[in-house]
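Model it.
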Amino acid sequence: MPTPHHVPLAEQTRDGLVESIHYGSLIALGPASTGADTGTNGETKLAAGDPDAPIYPRSSLKPLQAVALLRAGLKLEQDLLALTAASHSGAAMHQDGARRILEMHGLDEGALANSTDLPYGVSEREAWLRAGNGPTRLAQNCSGKHASMVAVCTINGWPVEGYLNPEHPLQRLVRDTITELTGEDAAAVSTDGCGTPLFAHSLRGMARAYGRLASASPESHEGQVAHAMRAFPEMVAGEGRDVTAMMRAVPGLLAKDGFEGLQLIGLADGTGVAIKISDGGDRARLPVTVRVLAELGVDADALAELQIPPVMGGGKPVGVLRAAGFLPANAGLQASR
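Modeled.
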């Protein structure tokens, strides 16, 4: 596949000089049609770079995967459903939650096939190591999703062993659900870091999916996932994580990050936002996201709660990490397809 045509999205300054630049692509897409043609695009509110190039959405697929699990009969309390869509920090509440999902369905950690890891959160990892612990499947940030996946296998009488095989009925359902919600077929298939099948989609398709989740009726599977994530943002990420902070700061906002510089946002009116930092740098996600949300009219006081650390030199601020000038030429862009 050709290299995407990314543009500068974020830059770091030091005493007025631009020191580093992060390239990437993004799109903010208005609500999609709700009639028979559910693949119809809404208005393109903002765009930069190459939002139609296929990318691997990584963990930003988890809320869509959670929708598939509900369609397959999964029933959980809201905190555990939020954990199903999480890239959690590995705190005790996260590991205990994954364990609860397993025990509710007669399973234990031995049923999981995700990779082992230390907790993802910095403070959680330090505490884990101080206690003398090593990598486990429950500590790995995707354990909530995997616990719910094996739970769905028991609910449906599907084999637990091999549940990560792309041809397993569970993964076929997940793929079909993602195709439906994004409105596009996967451009490529790979394997995510935790072992689940990973489907490539465009930022446009992912923005469409998040807009649908965020504006879905509460009784629908999509609405149930969105409501659980908003109600328990600390289960979706963790304390000190920007995804949790965003959902706490902005009422009705749905947020999920993904490795390699992915940020997905859904607003209550059905607007979806998808951002990809091309070098995979995580630090650039927040300033770009805040800039896009400001342009979309999100309350400035709420956005002010999302703190972007200054660039330090000798123990004092000497620069900033900020959004680059990617919007002026694109603001108000109308959908062309």
